[in-house]
Amino acid sequence: MNTVLVGIQWGDEGKGKIVDVLTESHDVVIRSQGGSNAGHTIIIGGEKYVLHLLPSGLLRRGKKAIIGNGCVVDPISLVGEIKQLKRQKISVEGRLYLSDRAHVVLPLHRHMDAAREAAASKSKKIGTTGRGIGPTYQDKINRLGLRLHELLDEKTLAKKIRLRVKEANQICRALGWKTTSAPQMIRDCSRAAKYLKPYICDTVHMIHELDRKGRNLMFEGAQGTYLDVDFGTYPFVTSSNTTTGGACTGSGLPPTRISSVVGTLKAYTTRVGAGPFPTESQVMGDLLHGLGREFGATTGRARRCGWFDAVMTRYACRLNGVTELALTNLDGLDSVGKIKVCTAYRIDGKKLTVPPASAEVLKRVEPVYRTFRGWQQDTSGCRCWKDLPAEAKTYLKVISELIEAPLGIISVGPDRDQTFKKNR
Ligand code: GDP
Ligand code: IMO
Ligand code: MG
Q: Does any ligand 1 atom lie closer than 6 A to the CB of residue 246?
């Protein structure tokens, strides 16, 4: 049984928490795209863990974790993350594997990320996480990137860094941005490479062998469907395929070996960074931020908040082939009297039931809302379907019907324990 878990909104749907819950019934957790732009928060018995590149499955002792070929690996920040987990008494030794084909995020990529954002006019800024993701994938697609197997070869590392720095500095000068230099970068990367060496291997072959032996594989998506470089609100997206297909190209597991796809979503919508957001609501933002919720795990930025958007999530279920929904943050709506759900968009006298390709058009659509009576009671203590207030059950059932996917898991709080299956 191989499961792919994807976010079906704009990221931060609670993927880390659901992966942690589902890892109980899986043997290996695999990240197949993105890098340390992700921020997955998991709370276990009150202890908080925030993971950026490390797969959340590592929080379950004895489970294996793989960072696949489709990921971009910042060796310096990864070492920091491994050490942080160690301080929290979790050792990754002997159970973490890094693909030798994954591309390396160098300090110069972070530098270029900042340069491009600074140079862009206000309306063109993406609001990236500043983790060097775009420039690293750009080098990969340009066939100029450095892969993990090369990180281990000191000569190649130094040569490639010098070349990349030279070109990056030409661009920096043209953009009016400060330049960067190679020697310190080479030293820092070489040190990180030595630390990571025992973890680097051929994960593609490893995944095939694990699959042949009948091990259950879990793919931990990062970002969300509308940050996908093809299907997201381009250009306000990340630089990888965050949808189901990315799990295959980013790991080497063929599509025919995927058994189920869990679409993770919040009971409302959030987005961090720039770009269109039809159901954005100041009222929801004030409410959730007032409760101390919805601040980004990677950059600490306040997330933009809004009502549930059934147009985007239905389309996302189709794109990803979602077989089951995992809905989180139901408790975020506990105090709301009237809850709105967007069922269609209107633009220039026309009705839209699928998201348009153009971010400019999406920016102009007017959401058509259906309003639900809120339950106005605390759901954080609910532990099964029948514990939920009647209005909450109605809300969940209608969402599931609107987006044409069955509800499997419900989460009513950040802790591992505040999660249950619908049929229980
Ligand atoms: P991810 O990037 O998809 O893994 O999501 P994040 O961890 O960035 O953001 C989700 C946030 O919601 C985190 O702070 C989680 O601890 C929190 N969370 C997840 N599920 C629930 C829930 O059901 N209720 C509440 N109150 N918080 C939740
Ligand atoms: P998780 O895995 C939410 C957003 C950034 C920005 C855009 C591009 O925690 O859900 P990038 O640094 O990737 O080039 O930024 O994508 N973004 C995320 N938003 N959750 C994430 O990851 C994100 N990763 C990137 O805010 O708008
Ligand atoms: Mg996150």
A: no
- pLDDT at 187 exceeding the cut of 80: yes
Beta bridge partner(s), residue 266: 328
Residue 424 has pLDDT above 70, yes or no: no
3-state secondary structure 58-124: HHCCCCEEEECCCEEECHHHHHHHHHHHHHCCCCCCCCEEEECCCEECCHHHHHHHHHHHHHCCHHH
**Structure tokens of 340?**
């709105």
Residue 298 has what pLDDT? 82
Among 221, 240, 244, 219, smallest CA distance to 230 is for 240
Report, as an integer, the average pLDDT of 1-8. Answer: 98
Residues with a known catalytic role: 12, 40
Is the model's pTM score more than 0.85?
A: yes
Q: Which ligand 2 atom is the nearest neighbour of the CA of 273? A: 27
- The DSSP code sequence of 342-380 is EEEEEETTEEESS--S-HHHHHH-EEEEEEEE---S--T
Instruction: Give CA–CA dist 30/98, Å, rounded.
Output: 10
For residue 14, the CA-to-ligand 1 centroid distance in Å is 4
Task: Give dist(CA 273, CA 242) in Å, integer.
Answer: 16
pLDDT, tens only, 53-73: 999 999 999 999 999 999 999
Which atom number of ligand 2 is nearest to the Cα of residue 301? Answer: 26
Spatial separation of the C-alpha atoms in residues 165 and 413, rounded to whole Å: 45
Lowest mean pLDDT among 10-19, 29-38, 291-300, 386-395: 291-300
| Residue 379 CB partners (closer than 8 Å, separation 6+) | 330, 331, 334, 387, 388, 389, 392, 412
Q: Following CA atoms 358, 360, 366, 368 in sequence, which dihedral angle do they give, to the nearest 10 degrees?
A: 20
Are 219 and 2 in contact by the 8 Å Cβ rule? The answer is: yes
CA dist., res. 16 & res. 225, Å (int): 15
Alpha carbons 296 and 105: distance in angstroms, whole number: 21
Decide whether any atom of ligand 1 lies within 6 Å of the 299 Cβ. no
Amino acid, single-letter form, for residue 263 = G
